[in-house]
Amino acid sequence: ERLKGIPLAQIAAGGAHSTTVSLSGAVYSWGKNSFGQLGLGDTKDRDWPTYVGALEHWKTVFISCGADHTAVLSKEGLVCTFGAGGAGQLGHNSTRNELLPRVVAELWGARVSHIACGRYEVPMPCLLRQYTLVYISSLDKFYFFGSDDERQLEDKRKPNQLIPLPISSPGNTGKSCQSNDHCRCIQSNPICYNFNFVNVFIYSTQNSFLNGIATLEDKEVDAWISNSKSHRSIKKNIRLIFSSEACINGSFLDKRDKHFKTSREVSGVDMSEVKCFYKKISKNPTVYQEV
Questions:
Q1: What burial class does residue 250 get, using C-beta atoms within 10 Å of its C-beta: 0-12 exposed, 13-18 middle, 19+ buried?
Q2: Which pLDDT value is given to residue 128?
């Protein structure tokens, strides 16, 4: 209920906490908060989605959750992390926990395009996955920080990586991403690759299963008005979008990134676009009535 009407772009789940980001970059978090992984400035758990005020106007476009830490990617390619830092997984050259989002200084200016956080693997809880992985498409390089050691091999444990350092990237990864500025999705699995138990797969958003919520498109509206599609198809599309507050809000967001300034005072919705839309569809009374 607390997220009703908010056009969501993505959700992510960690060990015992969850996060979501809206199309306008507003971040909400809830669940376990023992290490500050909710980014709310304290360690109190939350039973409901809570707005992360520290990320207001950060222009968040993607978020990833580890077991007890969180990483956030901005539209400009900046990365900030918060939560548990005991293994160096926050990338701040320390093992301190962070209760509020903090920019990873070592990545400043690098324009990161993908992020992923490691988690405890199931059904092997003895394996420790406390790391963050980032990909910079312009360099075709992966950067790693944190730990991926096996806990049962205490005598062979490697030191934690406290700052982002490059690792060799698998072949042909960059080619699939350099043409797409919004290619951000990384998934990691416990398969051996250069360092223990990490294998990275990159998918462009065009091929991803996550296509986003239904929103209005000019071509679609033109098809409605011209009746170039069947009435049944038009009716189905209209009901899909206009039965959801979130889809309606997402359809009329301010253009040119102005919607990233959304706050409690600024809705991010362009009312002039709403008026233009209704004026446009008024040319077709049947469509107008259905909407």
A1: buried
A2: 56
The confidence band for 202, taking pLDDT boundaries of 50, 70 and 90, is: very low
Give the CA distances from residue 12 to residues 17, 81, 192, 288, in Å, rounded to whole numbers and listed in that order: 9, 14, 24, 37
| The domain made up of 1-171+181-204 is a member of CATH 2.130.10.30 | yes
Question: What residues does CATH 2.130.10.30 cover in the chain?
Answer: 1-171+181-204
Block residue for tokens 């980032």: 134
Cα 187 from Cα 203, distance rounded (Å): 9
CA distance 251 to 247: 6
Nearest to 69 by CA among 27, 23, 32: 32
Cα–Cα distances in angstroms (integers) from residue 176 to residues 24, 91, 172, 202, 204, in the given order:
26, 27, 7, 8, 7
pLDDT for 265: 82
Q: CA nearest 107: which of 130, 89, 91, 83?
A: 91
The region of weakest confidence among 67-71, 102-106, 154-158, 179-183 is 179-183
**Of 10 and 196, more confident:** 10
pTM: 0.81
**Residue 286 contacts by C-beta under 8 Å, 6 or more apart in sequence?**
231
